[in-house]
Amino acid sequence: MSRINPSPAERAFDEGRLMQVLVAPIVSEKATMVGEKSNAVTFKVLQNATKPEIKAAVELLFKVEVKGVSVVNIKGKTKRFGKTVGRRDNVRKAYVMLKPGQELNLSGEAA
After folding, report:
1. In 10 A of CB 69, how many CB atoms?
2. Is 63:99 a contact under the CB 8 Å cutoff?
3. pLDDT by residue (tens digit) across 27-70?
4. pLDDT beyond 70 at 107
5. Which of 2, 31, 51, 79 could form a disulfide with 42 if both were Cys (CB 3.0 to 4.6 A apart)?
6. What gap in Å lies between CA 46 and CA 71, rounded to an integer?
């Protein structure tokens, strides 16, 4: 697949894959501040998810228009549990910016 100028057939994503790309929404103080400031929503996504896949998944699942996607890879920390040494998983976060006038309600309360 050419990344420079993909054909319409190459741009189409498998719907089953798109349903799995978004793992969970991230609800934290930082995510809320970013959301209020730049009309963005934060998600935990699969490690191998691409920006176009994330955009297509959000548009498919939530029926909103996406302006852009930023992705952050966070390395898992090494932690001690008594004598044993454990390691947290690596996390990939996606900040999804919505177009003006679009809104995504993840709190579950009726609008």
Report:
1. 22
2. no
3. 999 999 998 999 999 999 999 999 999 999 999 999 999 999 99
4. no
5. 31
6. 11
CA–CA separation, 84 and 26 (whole Å): 29
Query: Whose CA is closest to 89, among 55, 46, 58, 50?
Result: 46
**Amino acid at the residue 90:** N
Query: What torsion, rounded to 10 degrees, do the Cα atoms 59, 56, 107, 40 define?
Result: -90
Please choose, from the candidates 79, 91, 15, 110, the residue with its C-alpha nearest in 3D space to the C-alpha of residue 46: 91
How many Å apart are CA 36 and CA 49, to the nearest integer? 25
Q: Which two tokens stand for residue 76?
A: 């898992």
